[in-house]
Amino acid sequence: MRQLCFLLFLGLLWAGAAQSQPAFWRDRSGNPVVETESLKSKNGFGGFLVATTDADWEQKWSTPPETVPIFEEADVVPYGRKVYILSLFANPSMDDSGKAKVQCDIRVVDPNGKVALALKDQTCYSGRLSGKATNVYMSTQVMVFSGDPGDPAGTWSVEVNLLDANRDTELPLRTRFQLR
């Protein structure tokens, strides 16, 4: 099984809007990480969407900042096994009172292209940050998926559009997993 390591936490850089700006996400060694459909940045705001089958994801996440959590990435998932969808973000802008405001739209799409879930304008984070803005934070919107008998087998897609409302910057993120 593939392992997903959050080495991206350790080397986060500030990034600007232009293509000539340095890479936002960096690995533990400081090397730029290629952005993907589940890992993006724009205007200094970073987002990361993870689908994991780790039932202990919350315990892994709730560790000291110097501890890098490792999650098992959802790839092929049997019916009945839970998939936890985690939206992560970094470097949101603060308003005049020092508060971040991150909104999100969420869509789950089945293998036939049918939208199984659609939520708009959800609050993913609102308030003061507990540390530096460049730390990685988890959205308050954690989804749990479990394929039931009768759900179509195949590739399921989860789309989360993160919006840094103070900066008016959107990051469309997507992750996928196979239900069998």
TrEMBL record:
Top-level taxonomic group: Bacteria
Keywords: Signal
UniProt key word Signal: yes
Signal sequence segment: 1-20
Presence of the UniProt keyword Signal in the record: yes
Protein name: Uncharacterized protein
Native source species: Ralstonia flatus
